[in-house]
Amino acid sequence: MEQLNNDICYQALKTRDRRFDGRFYTAVLTTGIFCRPICPAVTPKRANVEFYPSAEAAIAHGFRPCLRCRPEAAPGSPASAGVHATVARAVRLIDQGVLETGSIADLAERLGVGDRHLRRIFKEHTGVTPQEHAKARRLLRARQLIVDSNLSMIEIADIAGFGSLRRFNDAMKQAYGQAPTAFRRGVKPRTSSPVKDDDPFAPRNDDLVLRLRARQPFDAEYLLAFFRARAIPGLEAVRDRIYARGFAMGDQVGLMICHFSPDQSGVEVILRGPAREAVLEIGARVRRLFDLDADVPSITAQFSDDALLAPLIEKRPGLRVPGCWDRFELAMRAVLGQQVSVAAARTLAGRIVARFGKALPDDLVARTGVTHLFPAPAQLANQELISIGLTTRRAQTLADVTDLFADPGCDQKAGETLIADLTAIKGIGPWTLNYFGLRGLGDPDAFPAADLGILKASSMGGGPDKAKALDALSESWRPWRAYAAQYLWSALEGEG
């Protein structure tokens, strides 16, 4: 897909091309409102519009979000997420509320850069300052929670970071011109398929429900098949259009049940238990877990003339790269998966969960098949892992990974630093590093060329059957080799 300019944006606006949803926003000078490119409103004249790379940038320039197309519900834009590594980390920390209690200088110190440098690169990549981003995110989060969740207004004001209901009401009226309650009154009741009263995956009256949209096209069927084959017994449950797992946020535990929409438009997330209060962080994790924001048409355009990949893209145009819920959990999975089948790795991980994971309350998870959490690094430190059926060498590698993640500062490490630390651990090679980068870090260019499945798929499609030759061929797929890997894995569907 071409680099966006104003002419391309206006053409996409006129045709309401869904492939551009979330990639830019249209501000209408005559109304002071900004919209998504798919907005059903009458297309404004070219002279009356300006284009912005993110909703935050449009808000910072004084425009109000459209009430019809709801910019806050659009898939995440590259500009909003930040394409520079430091900016991406800054956006993540701001979204977690770091500026609610600290300053730009504090944020810059945490990122290891100067505050002036942070302001400069942040505006360069997102179009707004860090403070403007934080303010806009509060507004966008709040309206998303009003329309897409069943939270009360007091809960939304607190979770979105307004501090008080009065501040929340004033800010929303100023930004949208209406009281927050008006948005919920204007939402049409959502209809869902009838569920049996004894269905453990159906929402309860006190559950929190959050609805997340996916950038189109979105292949939910393949994602569910991927997670079903790898679901760890006791930790995860995968049913028809359902993915569920236990999770913890700090000292609080919860159950997450994800219902994939029949029309593949997105995911309805049911949150049960006290940990549900971290709904915004949970929502962000779910978006990464299912790769909901991937701009697949732009990515696959690079593969359109590739003899090996083009037929696979035609078969599954909305394929995503599955992410992870937790980096430590994924690192352990990756080590367990070395040189064994998917089923064998799943069995070993299930033994770790059953033996060392924290049991969840029965009233939280009854009849779901979910029973335990994946153990935290501190819980696994100094435990004897050979007993689950591992070799001495593999058990030591897992112990070293546990020690790495048990370091309190590990959560703040950049991806490249974490990869370097993992590289230094004996028993971790290129396959494990690339698999961890692909799923654990969301690196779009990670490519485990030595993976036996990928090599088999390549050979089936007439490509190289040796890692070195495939790695050389993959140079033409940069920087989207993770998606190429996923397409090659998809070619093995139905293989024994």
From TrEMBL:
Pfam families listed in its UniProt record: Ada_Zn_binding, AlkA_N, HhH-GPD, HTH_18
SMART domains: AlkA_N (SM01009), ENDO3c (SM00478), HTH_ARAC (SM00342)
EC number per UniProt: 3.2.2.21
PROSITE patterns for this protein: HTH_ARAC_FAMILY_2 (PS01124)
GO molecular function: alkylated DNA binding; DNA-3-methyladenine glycosylase activity; DNA-7-methylguanine glycosylase activity; DNA-binding transcription factor activity; methyltransferase activity; sequence-specific DNA binding; zinc ion binding
The organism's place on the tree of life at top rank: Bacteria
Keyword Transcription among UniProt keywords: yes
Cofactor: Zn(2+)
Reactions mediated catalytically: Hydrolysis of alkylated DNA, releasing 3-methyladenine, 3-methylguanine, 7-methylguanine and 7-methyladenine
Annotated stretches, region: Disordered: 180-200
InterPro entries with a match to the protein in the record: Ada-like_dom_sf (IPR035451), Ada_DNA_repair_Zn-bd (IPR004026), AlkA_N (IPR010316), AlkA_N_sf (IPR037046), Alkylbase_DNA_Glycosylase/TA (IPR051912), DNA_glycosylase (IPR011257), HhH-GPD_domain (IPR003265), HhH_base_excis_C (IPR023170)
One GO cellular component term noted in the UniProt record for this chain: protein-DNA complex
An example Gene Ontology biological process: base-excision repair, AP site formation
Keyword annotations of the record: Activator, DNA damage, DNA repair, DNA-binding, Metal-binding, Methyltransferase, Transcription, Transcription regulation, Transferase, Zinc
HTH araC/xylS-type domain mapped to chain residues: 88-186
Protein's recorded name: DNA-3-methyladenine glycosylase II
